[in-house]
Each structure stands twice: as C-alpha cells, then as structure tokens.
Amino acid sequence: MSDQRxxxxxxxxxxxxxxxxxxxxxxxxxxxxxxxTARKPKRENVRFFPTCEAARAAGLRPxxxxxxxxxxxxxxxxLESIEALVAEIRRAPxxxxxxxxxxxxxxxxxxxxxxxxxxxxxxxxADVLLRARLEHAQSAFLTSKAPINEVAMAAxxxxxxxxxxxxxxxxxxxxxxxxxxxxxNAFTVHLPKSYPLPYLRRALSxxxxxxTERLDGNQYTCVTRIDGKPTIITLRLNEDAVDVTTTHxxxxxxxxxxxxxxxNQDAEGFGRLVRKxxxxxxxxxxxxxxxxxxxxxxxxxxxxxxGQQINFPFACQLRRRLIELAGTxxxxxxxxxxxxxxxxxxxxxxxxALKFSRQKAAYVIDTAKLVAEGxxxxxxxxxxxxxxxxxxxxxxxGLGPWSVNYxxxxxxxxxxxxxxxxxxxxxxxxxxxxxxxxPDIDATRRLMxxxxxxxxxxxxxxxxxxxxxxx
Length: 471
Known about the structure:
This protein is α+β, with helices and mostly antiparallel strands. The protein has helices at residues 3-11, 52-57, 68-72, 77-91, 99-106, 110-121, 125-143, 148-154, 160-171, 175-179, 197-204, 250-261, 267-276, 297-306, 312-326, 340-344, 348-352, 358-372, 378-381, 386-394, 401-410, 423-433, 441-448, 455-465, and strands at residues 22-25, 30-32, 46-49, 61-62, 186-190, 213-216, 219-226, 229-237, 241-246, 328-329, 335-336. It contains 24 helices and eleven strands. It has a five-stranded antiparallel β-sheet with strand order 5-9-8-7-6, covered by helices on one side. The protein has a four-stranded mixed β-sheet with strand order 3-1-2-4.
C-alpha cells in the first residue's frame, strides 16, 4: 500500500485495516491502529510502520485509546473488562443501583465508560441495566409465583409503576399478561402510539411469492422453527395492538413477534436525534419506523449470504428454491425453513442446479455446517458484545462487512450498524443530502457517523426514503 492509501484508511477510521499497518504520530510520540477514533493527525506528522516493534524502535509509545500492542497480540483487555462488567450486570442487576454504580465498578472515567458501552454494545450503561432488569423479571415470572411487586424489587426496580411502564413498552405486554404466556397459545401485543403499520405491512410482504410467510390484508402468517420444531405464528394487525396465535411455545413465539415488530428499538430516541440534526425530513411520514427482525438468526444468516451482490428479486428467488429443496411442507401451504443440519447435508451441486453460483452454494453449505456442528453458536451472538459478534462473523468465509452488518442489524438486533456499500443506503443519502453523486464507502462512513448510536434505524429510513409511501 502507498502511504497515501494508508493515510486515507486512517482518516476513514477503517478498522478492517487494523494490524495491516500501524500509524505513528510524530508530534505526540504515540502509535495507533488505523481504526483508532482519536483526533486525526496532519499528513506531515504521520509515519507508518509494519509492526508495533518497529514503531517502538522509532521511540514511539502505544496509544491508550486503541491499545495497538494488545491487538497485535490477539488480546483486547478493555473489551474483555467491559464484557465482564456487562455479564455481572446481567447476572445480578439488583446489585447496581443506577448508572453511577456501574461507572464506579468499571474502573474507567465517566465519558470513557459511555464511549465503550456505545462502541461494544450499542447501548448506554442505563440501557444495559434496564434490559438486564427486565430479563431478570421475565425469568422470574416463568419460574416462580412471586407477586409482581416482589419480582420488580428483586430485579432492582425501585418503583412498580416504572417497572410496568418499561415492561409494557419493550415487551408489548403487561407483566401479568407475560406471566400467562405458557398457559395459552394466544396473546395480544400492544403497539406504541402512532406505530407506522403500513411500513410494517410492507416489510412483512417484501417477497410476495414467499413460501414461509404471507400477508392477507391485516393477517400475517409465518412459519419458523422454535427448538427445531416447525411453528406457525399468525398476527392480526390492528391500529393499537396485534393479536397473536401460535402452534408452539408462546414464550418463544412472543420473542419472535417482538422482533418482527421491532418493539425493543429506540425509535423515539432516533427521532429526537434527527430533529436535532435538522434532518427531520428523513423520518417524515414514518416517525416510529422500526426494523422488522428475521424470524431466527439462522434465517438472517442465510439471507445475508444469499443476498450478496445480487438484486433483491433474484435473492428472494434463490431463497425460495433453497427452502423448497430442503424445508418441510406444512398443511397450510407454507414450508418450514430448513434446519442448519438439513442445509449442511446438501451438496453444492444441488444449489448450483437452482442457479446459485458455485461460490455462493459453498458459502451457504459450509456456514450451515459450522452451525450444525456447534462451531458457530448463533444463540450466543445476540447477547454477546457487538464487537465480539462482528469479529466472529467476519472470521467466517463468505461473510464480508456488508453481510455481517446486515446480519447484525436484521437478525441480532444491534442498534448501530451500517451495511456499507448498500445501494439503498447510498441512494438515500444522496437524496436526503442533495448530493451530486452517490457517496462511496468512505464518504458513507463519514456521513452516517452523525446518526450514531442509531445507525441501524438510519439505514432503515434511508432504505425507505426514495420509496413511495405505502397504502
């Protein structure tokens, strides 16, 4: 690489170049990773090194923000310390009275803690604590008969009314109704005010020929797998609530529905941010838009591989053919998507015959084998740090930055992802900002930075920006 190319990667904070070279800043006497988010040095004050040893030999010392030596050695003590702290919060949320107690426990300064939580979990410390408390309460409701107020107190809530408010907002159910889930195959999920149902209907009917889901007016039916078992979930969409029926495990089905509706996404926070930026036109007419999550992480994984570098209709066609080949036909005319083991058992020639490229066929089958053999634990990715999930997925052959960010956003629910290189994103930015031409990846990265920590929702709105308003 030329020096100019390396300097360009530094200006872009391109973490994909971390380890390929190291940046020395002569005026400060430190060396960094290319992806370091510290203030960018002037070109004349920069020198590049192939290794940390070479930088130290030049008299420079390692940056205390990006820790280049740890990266070079394969260690990341800062990430590990934050992951350990989050694990502690999730294990005993009642031990943390508030955000201040998290800051004290962390050993970092206040601004540094917020920065690290945003970077690695796409949440504030308060968000992590709230969700840990709610998860603690959910588990208690399903395993004990303790009164609601006792469950709330045990999870760390000081006010039962605040507990009710947060629980209903993020779960769509009251605590009492959630506790009743195992007793029935039907439940009703309440929607936030002004929920944009037309955009949800559009999301649920993107593939009008889908063999795993169908939308008929306000009734949506899908088939997914819960604990490996084909499960039919039906949603009746109303203005302020969604009536749900399921054929198996109402608790797990509720999680699927919450994902489909995007209830745990902070659409209000994103709305406040874009108005502050003077970009309210980005959300005009669809304030409250959420990202509809895939039914399962494995389905999202298949989508992210199949959809690479081809147009959407063809991606839908390939996905249907795979499901028809390896899935399970049901009496209602839908087909349950195949399990990882069923996809892993296929031969690449089976998919090539369905118009998959040889490379894409190999990627699909090889990745399914990783999941089926337990070498890729999909269930743990959504609860891991975003950084850990991204590094794990980028290490899989066939998954690049676009695929990984798409998967993290649409299947794992991380809030601050951008599938860089996506034409929908670049076209939306061009129209939103009235640019003469569509931005390249580096420009997209700079332009999308203002939407942090809500870049996933920004992406969803940009996808819709040039589309007609749904009926």
